[in-house]
C-alpha cells in the first residue's frame, strides 16, 4: 500500500443493520457462571449498504432493503463508483475491498480492467 499516494486509493466496505444489531454475541460473567443476554426475538427489517471512502470522506453510497447481493454490488460498482475513478496512476485509481464474498469474482476484475484500475 505504501507505493500508492493517498489520492489514488478508495476503500469500499459494506454494512448492515437490523433490529438485532445492538445485541452482543459474547459477554462476560463471573468465573463459573454463564453470560446471559435477554432480548426480544424479532423477525425484522434488514437494511444493507455499501460506501466508498476517500480522503474527501464518503463520496458515494448505496442502501438497499435486505442483504447486499453480488448483482446489487456490481450495479453500484459499475454505475456509481467506476465513473468516479480514473486510470492508474490517477486520482482514485486503486480500490481496496475486504474479503466479503460479494467482492470476489471475474465480473469485478473485468470492470476494473475496463476502467483501467489496478486489480
UniProtKB/TrEMBL annotation:
Pfam families named in the record: DDE_3
Domain Tc1-like transposase DDE: 10-114
InterPro entries in the cross-refs: RNaseH_sf, Tc1-like_DDE_dom
Domain of life from the UniProt record: Eukaryota
A single GO molecular function term of this UniProt record: nucleic acid binding
Alphabetical list of PANTHER family matching this protein: TRANSPOSASE (PTHR46564)
Protein name: Tc1-like transposase DDE domain-containing protein
Organism encoding this protein: Laccaria amethystina LaAM-08-1
